[in-house]
Write a structure and sequence with these properties.
Blueprint: H1 3-6, H2 11-30, H3 38-45, H4 49-56, H5 59-71, H6 83-99, H7 101-111, H8 118-141, H9 148-165, H10 172-188
Helix pairs in contact: 2-3, 3-4, 5-7, 5-8, 6-8, 6-9, 6-10, 8-9, 9-10
């Protein structure tokens, strides 16, 4: 379980987390991430290094926690009135956000975390939740639904792979082609 989930709402723990997260975000704007250290963060956040080590373990887990906080959904995916355009809007926006410099760095922080996959699992859950929302909307409209695991495999996984390995651009046209293939396969079953 990551530190973020163990914290009580409000109080000293929340203030420490907020101060440390804000400090990390500010440092990432001006300092190369490889040069950022726990003592540097602690000094600027007004906490002791031991507080950071105790709460986050190491710099990798702290960076992953900051990335997850940024990636946490603040709203539901757009409701366009139809499943196909809902999926297209979500996937194209997801690809644009994750392929940006900030998106790539956040993905690297999450994947590089030493938290035993906890950060990656939580990140994945955010995407699954959005896809479940799109599936449930389609069902409520009386449209044929899609399998969320299949959408992760056929839509999200190739996008993340190409973003991480930079072997192709994940353009809106590429995303639309993935979606068309996914929906055609679904219709054929």
């Amino acid at each position: 379980m990551m530190a973020r989930e163990m914290l009580r709402q409000g109080g000293r723990s929340a203030r420490i987390q907020t101060a440390v997260h804000e400090t990390v975000r500010e440092l990432l704007k001006t300092v190369d991430r490889s040069a950022i250290t726990v003592p540097m963060i602690a000094e600027k956040a007004g906490v002791t290094p031991s507080t950071i080590y105790r709460r986050w373990g190491d710099i990798g887990d702290l960076l992953a926690d900051v990335a997850l906080a940024h990636m946490r959904p603040i709203s539901q995916p757009a409701d366009t009135g139809a499943m196909r355009t809902d999926i297209e809007t979500f996937i194209v926006e997801y690809a644009e956000e994750m392929s940006s410099r900030l998106g790539r760095e956040m993905l690297q922080d999450i994947v590089g975390s030493s938290s035993g996959g906890g950060a990656a699992e939580r990140c994945c859950h955010y995407t699954i939740h959005h896809l479940e929302t799109l599936r449930d909307r389609a069902e409520q409209r009386g449209e044929a639904v899609f399998d969320v695991d299949a959408a992760m495999d056929k839509l999200v996984a190739p996008i993340v792979y190409h973003i991480m390995f930079r072997d192709r651009d994940v353009t809106p046209d590429y995303c639309r082609a993935l979606i068309s293939e996914f929906l055609e396969e679904r219709a054929g079953n």
